[in-house]
Specification:
The protein has about 475 residues and is mainly α. The protein contains 19 helices and two strands. It has a domain of about 280 residues. Helix content is about 60%, strand content about 0%. Helix 4 runs antiparallel to helix 5 and helix 14 crosses helix 16.
Length: about 475
């Protein structure tokens, strides 16, 4: 495939993905995504009362950029009705995932992947279930994925020549914006630092380093200093407060063991849901999901928490899950192969290999994720969506892994990978396989949560965006 044909293919991919994201954002009623009600309350607080106390709501501990953008969209689209406003707020996440998918292509090409392979990497980034589900949720993971991808393009350019001040400024500003979107934006700092860790940096390189890291800190430090002043820590969280603690306890997976990070149970794919459901209620954790790799893989390639697949009917979707989890093995193995190659090159070159910044970011991200899941032994902490900042590195590693194969084997592997992306796109297009969610349940759940958090604006956001009355308790969800 020529470069021009691949570029045209990328534009078509982005158009299809944008259409699907917008359809899903508009066609899914209610709050169905991870913590959507909490995010909506945060956006309402920003819209009408300014930056709230970090511990005042369900999601108010998060940095505010994604929620501030959602609040602006809410104001702009409110005359069109609550359904349009909610869809527009979700589109902030969709924009982020589209940006990530667009950046994967040039990133993979810069690291040596052929055009057809780089295009396949972008298709996977756009349609792997964890990404496309996040693309139509109200939240901050999707936007963060896009900012990290765009920043990595600048960092890779900077790694080739650390005196490029334009690249340094772009990398620093985008890293600062990532830090204002979610705490895991800090993973970018490992990538940003690496281009400057060399003895021959020189005065120009030192100036570029100051510009890059200084821009990031200038943008982000006021928020983190505010957090420190108000809560005693720059990264406060509400998970130890009620009702968040009780809700997380429902997903308790038992004490973590080192083996949880090393084993993949043979029956992982036979239980694609995180929770056992009995008579419409959660009744425990599926045993294979105690394995962190199993939980992450299932969350990446299916809907482990039943956001789009009706979780009150545990048998629904198992056939589709089996197909997706089976097809996903090939691109996942290529990703692992590409990461292994990149890690070897980075170590052998003393950090000077082109892909070394992606390796540094990925190692910091994986270590942070492992530490968080150890400290918080709940399935709520093992969401694959928490790894979305690594979406662009994953796409690049996939491209590098596929490029190692012979042409005939590579074509077969890319065909399987594209089939996985296409099937995922079909399965998780609202109405194609699974019907829209029931808005009454999410309205009831978040209204009850809002009553327990009177300063969160959650109940008011639920009323204004969803409407109607609710009488169920949180336990009913």
């Amino acid at each position: 495939m020529s470069e021009r044909a691949a570029a045209r293919g990328l534009w078509w991919l982005l158009a299809v993905a944008a259409t699907q994201y917008l359809w899903n954002a508009a066609a899914q009623p209610g709050f169905w995504g991870y913590d959507e009600g909490g995010h909506a309350g945060y956006a309402l607080a920003l819209r009408e009362g300014g930056l709230p106390h970090p511990l005042s709501g369900w999601s108010s501990f998060h940095p505010p950029l994604a929620h501030a953008l959602a609040a602006l969209v809410w104001t702009a689209l409110e005359p069109l009705g609550p359904r349009a406003a909610l869809a527009g707020m979700r589109a902030v996440s969709g924009f982020g995932v589209l940006l990530a998918g667009a950046c994967v292509f040039p990133l993979a090409r810069r690291l040596g992947a052929p055009p057809a392979t780089a295009l396949s990497a972008s298709a996977l980034a756009l349609f792997v279930p964890v990404a496309q589900l996040s693309a139509s949720m109200l939240g901050n993971e999707g936007l963060l994925a896009g900012l990290c991808a765009a920043a990595l393009l600048a960092v890779v350019e900077l790694h080739e020549d650390p005196t490029r001040r334009g690249a340094a400024a772009r990398a620093g500003i985008l890293t600062g914006l990532a830090l204002l979107t979610k705490y895991s934006g800090a993973w970018l700092l490992a990538a940003c630092a690496l281009p400057f860790l060399r003895r021959d940096l020189g005065r120009s390189g030192i100036g570029a380093a100051a510009l890059c890291l200084g821009s990031a800190l200038l943008l982000a430090s006021p928020l983190y200093l505010r957090n420190l002043a108000l809560t005693g820590t720059p990264v406060p969280m509400t998970r130890e407060l009620e009702p968040m603690r009780s809700q997380e306890a429902r997903l308790y997976a038992g004490p973590r063991r080192p083996s949880d990070y090393l084993r993949v149970p043979w029956d992982c794919g036979l239980h694609p849901y995180a929770m056992v459901v009995v008579d419409g209620r959660w009744a425990g954790v599926h045993e294979p999901m105690r394995s962190v790799p199993c939980a992450v893989y299932t969350g990446a390639w299916f809907d482990a928490f039943g956001l789009r697949v009706e979780r009150q009917q545990g048998s629904e979707g198992i056939g589709w899950a089996t197909a997706l989890l089976t097809l996903g093995v090939v691109p996942t193995l290529l990703l692992v192969l590409g990461f292994g190659l990149s890690l070897w090159r980075a170590v052998r070159s003393g950090g000077r290999a082109r892909e070394a910044p992606l390796v540094a970011m990925s190692l910091l991200g994986a270590a942070s994720f492992a530490a968080f899941t150890w400290i918080a032994p709940s399935l709520a902490a093992v969401k694959a969506a928490y790894l979305l900042p690594l979406l662009a590195p994953a796409g690049a590693f996939f491209g590098l892994g596929a490029a190692l194969l012979g042409s005939r084997v590579r074509r077969a592997a890319l065909a399987v990978s594209l089939a996985a992306a296409a099937l995922a796109a079909w399965v998780f297009t609202t109405g194609a396989v699974f019907p829209p969610a029931d808005p009454a349940r999410s309205l009831a759940y978040w209204t009850a949560i809002g009553r327990q958090l009177p300063d969160s604006r959650v109940a008011e956001a639920a009323s204004r965006l969803l409407g109607g009355a609710a009488t169920l308790s949180p336990a009913a969800e």
